[in-house]
Amino acid sequence: MIAYFECSSGISGDMILGSLVDAGVPLEKLEKELLRLNLSGYTLKERKVKRNGFKALKVDVKISNREHSRGLKQTTGKRKWKDVEQIIGKSKLSPQIKAQGLKIFRRLFDAEARVHGGRYDRIHLHELGAVDCLVDVFGTLIGIDLLGIDTIYSSPLNLGAGTVNTDHGILPVPAPATLDLLKNIPVYSSNASFELTTPTGAVLISSLATEFCSLPKMTVTRVGTGAGGKDVDTGPNILRLFLGETSSKTPQEEKSAEARDTVTVIETNIDDMNPQIYEHVMELLFKKGALDVFMTNIIMKKGRPGIKLTVLCDENGRDLLMDIILRETTSIGLRYYRTERKILQRELRSKRTRFGEVAVKVSQVDKKSRKTSVEYEDCRKIARKFNIPLIEVMKTLS
Hints:
Largest sheet: 5 strands, mixed
Mean pLDDT: 86
Shape: globular
Radius of gyration: 26 Å
């Protein structure tokens, strides 16, 4: 199962818990599994609320007046790495969830150490209550496990705006630790007047999501909606969780040797760049997910010869590839559009030859005929290994 978090109003620990419970995780089951963490002094409460007219589920971690936990000092209100590490280490959670939790909390402490200076094992998590943060993190990991989620995607993150009160005074949003955790992740601000993405939300989604993108191609089977703390002027303060499976082929596609899909085409005209740079750019584009990259000789205005660089890609990878082109070439502008393509079904097979195993691409035209081609890279390796002209290797294996 795959999951997609739509973070148009940011993300926080309680919003994630709300979306998971609303998507089908029984609160009683979640509470039972959290007992393995060996914490006390808290209860989980769920309630249905409305945010700007939309119903959502609010899940709160309620801390009692006798807040405490075995092995965790709460008298100073400050939590150190060794306290959290001890709790996780002594818990009865599964080894996988323990390891995930340790990694997430280590990232939190590392982020605090970088923004405040000092070592991670001497830093205190001033702004995060130890018990509620532990419950948010491990409640999320347990909920994901209970739902059977294998892969997580997320939208870009709305950080909010304004200021936030901290132990270090009033700071602008995003808080320094939040921003540190979200390096190299797409973010924006809708100018809501308070913090939308919290440090807990930031560390969870940045640790768990494999990609930050628009909604991937999927068949949605369930939706969970978690509520934020209050209404905001810029829209409903909710976190939506889409659950489902990757879209499969239709019965008609399974029977056909042909398939149709939609791709994005990125183009730019270049007439002032050292030609040696093109190979470097092409390698980067392919490495970052381009389906195809090619160049066309063109004549530009005033009779200047130039190159039209064309890239084919999935919609989700468009922005990343455009950034690479603008950063790595002399181009100052791009054009892009979506188009359809028709392709033969294909598969990669292994073929035994006198040179050893080689990869062969097989494209099925219909039930009676097919096209085959030996992979170029395998041919090149053979030519180098046996000191045979590449053209002869390709003729022999074709």
